[in-house]
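Sequence in, structure out. Go.
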Amino acid sequence: MKTDEKLAALRRMMAAHQIAAIVVPSADPHQSEYVTGHWQARAWLTGFTGSAGVAVVTRTRAVLWTDFRYWLQAGIQIQGSEFELFKSGEKDVPDFHRWIFDHLGPKNTVAIDGRILSRTQEKTYRQLWDIRQIRLRTDLDLVKDLWQDRPPMPMSTAWEFDVQYAGQSRVEKIENIRKAMAQAGADCHVMTALEDIAWTFNLRGSDAPNNPVNIAFALFTQSSVRLFIHPDKVTKDLASGLANDGVTLAGYTDIDTALGQMPDSACMLLDPDMTSACLASAINPACRVVEKPSPAARLKAVKNDIQIRHLRDTAVKDGIAVICFLHWLSEQEPDDSLTEISAAEKLFELRNAQPGFVENSFDPIMAFGAHSALCHYSATPQTDVRLDNTGLFLTDSGGNYLTGTTDITRTVCLGTPSLQQIKDYTLVLKGHIAVAGACFPEGTRGFQIDTLARQFLWAQGMNFGHGTGHGVGFFLCVHEGPARISPHPVDAALEKGMLMTDEPGVYREGEYGIRLENMVLVTDSRQTEFGRFLEFENMTWCHFERDLIDTSLLTEAEIAWINQYHRQVYDRISPYLPSRIAAWLQTRTALLD
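Output:
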């Protein structure tokens, strides 16, 4: 069916169920960032394949919301259909739930599939819509009967993630989960986030794009653990190993029944941001519920000594791949074969040659010229452009290795840079250095660090619209909570062992964008009479673009920082490079005057 045919069929079903509007988000029952094909109903309905967006269909209108990463792609993919594009974040563009509030009347009913709607979202929407007596139904999935060619649920085989990489056994992790349950006053806990389950049970798979996870749920009590996963995903050897560690297996769809059978006296810990409305409603209503973040979220964010040792090795491997890529790029003559997509393919080839590489940690961002001004632009065959010597090229990419996950961004100049580009790059670099060199007291939150990255841009009346940094998993999801470095006052402290990113940027719409990203590890700095202080250790080794640095805008301390960092890049990476590339790297890391 074409998009408008899908809309017509959907509206017939809406009329039959007396539904005034249906909301189709980009989500799955685990609130995953990267959604498998089986749950990409919004993409199926709209034709827009970006990772983030919400579709709303009423009897007379069809609207798609997505953020600035995907405005270009969405505009192309929905062109010719009834869907209107609402650019989230633009002035005077309301959120979809506010738009529904403004456009529906009393007694109207909105339908959202409660299996993919979080408990927090359900509460938020009900609270707003109740003001106008707009009803919310979460028991309908109207798309399901129309989606004839829906991809099946992924069925990758689960496999044991060896403790030599994980650094901690699942028995130890389960015990720590139970301690956290007790501290929260709960005696049972439903775990829903796929990355939390992968970390807790030392399991990996390939059920989600660029995320080595298995689709599953878990249910903990103080005396038992059940893993709800399709039986065909678990080999006999793995099942035996899990059983030896006290883990009982159950079918993936059995979770609702298990929650309904919890004893009346139970107190259930659940994360309302990660637990679906339907799953929460399946819990025995006599149970008491404690709503708090999943204990695994913080536990997995703090890397152990074995993981940190592996991460340091991984930083070298990834540095080799990225530096070889930048050298390759520097030697290319502009022609029709050199495009954003072909550049991404080359970088994958170079990473894939590194020991322990498994897959990309996300779809790489390869953005040339005006595309680089779209913060998280994703090249498609429709948007792919040729690279020539007339602009800036932004590459944001990462790898999932058995020994850790990486995320790096560099911006390089293809051709001769303008004075404005040089100034902008240098201001971004100054902010990057300010974060990398920060020393801060224990208990500091990310929003307190965030201003360091922006101060030099602010002084020029400039800013960037994304956060400065996020947590990074260990051979897991490239975006990991609970801590982040952003203007949002997230109440999660930066703790020793957390792996974060440092990625300020600046974006001039229609011209170019600049972003510089390293991973940094939170480590001890010093203990004084004023308390314990922390700092960042660099975990990314790749040079900055010296042709875009204006040393007159740098302090002596900043120049010294760059020179020291470049010396470390050369010393750590050059021994593993062919002599020709090592010689090139030496010129790129030479001392700044």
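Check: The chain has a mean pLDDT of 97. The first helix runs from residue 3 to 16.
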